[in-house]
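Re: the multi-chain job from yesterday

Posting the exact lines I submitted so nobody has to dig through the queue logs.
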Amino acid sequence: MIDVRRHQTRTETLRFSSEARTVKKNTTFKEFNGMTRTLRRVFCVIYRRTPLIAVLTLAFITFTPTLAKAASPHGPFSSSTDKCSTCHRLHTGLSHKLLPQETSLALCQSCHTKGTGADTAVMQGIYIDAQNPDQSGGVDNGILLGGGFDRIGDASETTGRHQVGVAGTLPGSSALATDNPGAVITLTCLSCHTPHQGPNYRILRRRPGDVAEDVAVQSWVGNYEQYCEYDFDPVTTGVQGYTDNYKSGIASWCGSCHTTYLTRVEDSYDAGDKYGKSTRYRHGVDVDLAGGRPDAVTKVIYQPMNTDLPLEDLTGNGRTPDDELTCLSCHRAHGTDAQMTGWAEFDPAERGILPAGKDSMLLRQNDRTMCIKCHRVL
Amino acid sequence: MSARKLLTLSSISIVAVVIISLMMTSAAFAFSPDSNFTGSADMCAQCHRLHTATYINLLKDASAGMCRNCHFGGQGADTDVFNGVYVTGGHMTSPFTNYPHGETNAVLLGGGFEHVGGSGGLQTTSTHSMENPSGDVPPGSTSKQVIVLSCTSCHSGHRDMDHPDQYRVLRVQPGDAQSPIDVLWNGPWDDQNETSNVDPNRTYRAYTEHDFDPATPGVQFYTKNYKQNISNWCTGCHTRYLATDDNPQYKSDPGYDAGDGSGVTRKYRHSMEIPIVGRFENPFGAFEDFSTDLPLEDVNVTANPREDEDLLNCLTCHRAHGTEKTMEGHAALPASNRGTLPSGQDSTLLRKNNRGVCVTCHKMDVAY
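And the result, structure tokens for all chains:
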């Protein structure tokens, strides 16, 4: 009797081996960068060892069930996908959408808590590379680019976070609620992320805040890559890992909820502070660093700025002055452990709808360090 | 010759005639013994022995073994339910004509208990357990009654004279059902011409699986057989699987213990007996029509093969007898969430590998 499955596997292996030889010859750095970490290591073996060893190794990795098991449940999905059952129970769901947990938050936490399933332990703000060896989205034990909701690097507690599961007023959302400080919403993970892949980087929702049109967030890398913070200070060239991840659109995306934050001058609105409804001015976003800062001597000639904060790289040419400032240049998406002291603490009278005075507003660094990262006013 | 000897010889002759008649019956009139009884029914002897039975109900054999006598290896029935294949060579000759209700050597719609696609096919990875001595509690059962399943848990050995149209000779009142549940089908068919009596151009193939992808019209046989109520019938045992908030019986109760560690809680489940209508927005923002190549109930049978009004039902995703499909990765339920369900690798009778049945309708397998 012919074992059909074994026969098919062997056939696929043979086909794969010929493809592997082709890949070896034609692979570009971008393709290489798009591979999982494990595959990258194996790829290096291909160059050094005989083609037979390389092919066998690739085939082994490809068809090893353990690795297949570890793939992200968020997609992509095949016609025989195994991933639906990660998050859905067709007959015994405990909440809407047939989820096996009573809330979507609990479901997300069941994987994205350290040691449970996902590499990205967003509650602890740390990347665990060993969790899913087929998905190399960052360095083991590295701090997540978006920070964490409870801790950063599974160490210090957060001082500011996007409040999930708690009703609150959305800063800068006057367009969503006129003549008052903003819409009151209860954030969930699904307010920002779609669990079923999609066109946006980081499986970000196409229409956050239920805006009428899709907001595209593009990246230079695969959806499940570049999760960790790196030091990409221009001075330390060669360590510029994540400048390549965000390409465009993230500020517009954030602005779908924080509607007034995308323009420098907006019609007057109530920001929830002591000034009530008045015209507001704000720092530009989606602006490149080429315009720069005043020359230290002439005070007139503007020099291109540089920074070690994350920027959008529109052209994919690495860290250059045409990179653009975005919301994520200064803020972490999930939570931060940055400390606010002295002047950096909001005057309670000016705080309005914003959280407590010690709240670090998701800023990446202590106090207002982000400002001088570009403006160099020391 | 004494009268006593004469009587003895007469008795022997009568017995011989009966035996020969039975043998001839097997050969010439061996259409389904499960139904089509006539005033001079010859079929009783297929299963029963009036004086020499070895099992209750005067059966020749225990239930599954009894059924196996015919429904295995082409020994009698066309439907080799143990090997999950339709074998025309073994099919029973009817008094009408030679009418196959399936495609020869095709996989049975309900799969098989040991193999799928014949004795040389793949072994099953899950089945409705048969004659497990310790019994099983059907998942979703409210009563938690332990059932030792046998063929006759689901099928009646005889067509119920009060429900002669019960499809697949399914029991009229299965499991915990409180009243009869009629499973409607779209027959009877024109057996003489081997065609649908609704659409003469359409051949009736009720027993076997066919590709009836809407994209390939003309190969759409078995959408016609089930009409309505099969999901209600399944919930005769899996009582909770049709419960909805609309049902007063379940609206205010605290739910039930599914054995998955969540205790007595209200459960949410995929709707059944709903039409495959409308459009949905896929993750990439494109709108698509719901469609599927899985079997549906055809409520209002017309010449059109697959219509929006066709209903999703239990058999859309599950095979009734057993499946050879495999579960890997996330589809192998984790032990912590498995509850009373079988082992992690169990394929829970699903028609497609992993959760292929989901994306067949929900179209998540779009390019990325």
